[in-house]
Amino acid sequence: MPLLSSINKYKNYMGISSKPDDFDKFWGDSLTELENTKQGYTLKKIETAEKNIEQFDLYFESTYGAQIHCLYIRPKNIKYKIPGITFFHGYGSNTRGPFQYLPYVYNDIAVLAMDIRGQGGLSTDPWDGVGSTKYGQFIRGMQDEDIRKLFARNIYLDGVKAVKTLMSMDEIDETRIGINGKSQGGAITIAATSLVEGVKIITPTYPFMSDLKHVLEDNLTDADEFMEYFRRVDPKHETEKDIINKLSYVDISNLADRITAKVHWTLAILDESCHPSTQFAAYNKIKSQKEMIIYPDYAHEPQLLF
């Protein structure tokens, strides 16, 4: 049985992924690009047998003209501004609502759950970059000279716009906004929180895309997609240095120090998909109020979502 003491070696680990000199400019320019997309959103009501709630398909435009779909659920008969939570799902999944969100809605909290582009939901995913996508979406854009084509960069920006959309709604108290996400969704949670001012609280669960230089150099399990790229496209690793540099722009350990929200981070010691060391690399850079909730006997699995 694993012991909590086995995690002690990571508790001061800060990661080895470097931050590019133009990192802040890159994300500043990216946010400007996002602001130049069509603003606003559309709502289409979904008829539901659930009492005392309203449910909608919500769409907004994001980078490269993507139409991002969200499931929006709110209480009926709202009499005052209420808090809201944005949800981001794991790799390849979708919003899978509405039932998992009802405990929040029945407690007068609105929910906006985003379908990540190109995966199991209704969001569209236009893209015209260079390079393979056969072995996974997170390698998309790595061969393109334009770093803006990186898949992670664009889903992070989708997450930013989702959070800002929720904040903009008349019935929402923009000072009481939370974000929840696991794995891929955990990465978007960290990124969106770091890029949107005013998020109150976040609950990331075993987030992906952290300390990527460490992931690649030590061939951790969460590097399978990247390793398959090298096996098939660059078996001599001639582009490795360039790839690591590009990925540093979307490495959440380089975004974490921007976070001002309260953080409740969930980690599983047996996680082989998002290694505990990589999570501490990001967590340890967070300067706001935070706690790490550790489960010794769990891995990268949905049972953690109590």
Please render the helix and strand layout as text.
Blueprint: H1 23-35, E1 42-46, E2 53-61, E3 67-75, E4 82-88, H2 102-105, E5 110-114, H3 151-168, E6 172-182, H4 184-195, E7 201-205, H5 212-217, H6 224-233, H7 240-247, E8 262-268, H8 276-283, E9 290-295
Parallel strand pairs: 4-5, 4-6, 6-7, 7-8, 8-9
Antiparallel strand pairs: 1-2, 2-3, 3-5
Helix pairs in contact: 3-4
Overview of the structural elements:
This protein has helices at residues 23-35, 102-105, 151-168, 184-195, 212-217, 224-233, 240-247, 276-283, and strands at residues 42-46, 53-61, 67-75, 82-88, 110-114, 172-182, 201-205, 262-268, 290-295. With 306 residues, it is α/β, with parallel strands linked by helices. A hairpin with a 6-residue loop joins strand 1 (42-46) and strand 2. Helix 3 packs across helix 4 (184-195). The longest helix is centred in the middle third of the chain and has 18 residues, at 151-168.
Roughly what is the average pLDDT, rounded to an integer? 93
Number of strands: 9
- Beta-strand percentage range: 15-25%
Order of helices and strands: HEEEEHEHEHEHHHEHE
Largest sheet: 9 strands, mixed
- The side-by-side strand order for the widest beta sheet comes to 1-2-3-5-4-6-7-8-9
Helicity, in percent?
Answer: 25-40%
Structural class: alpha/beta
Low-confidence stretches: none
Can you count the helices? 8
Shape: globular
Radius of gyration: 19 Å
Q: Kindly, what is the distance between the CA atoms of the first and last residues, rounded to a whole number of angstroms? A: 21 Å
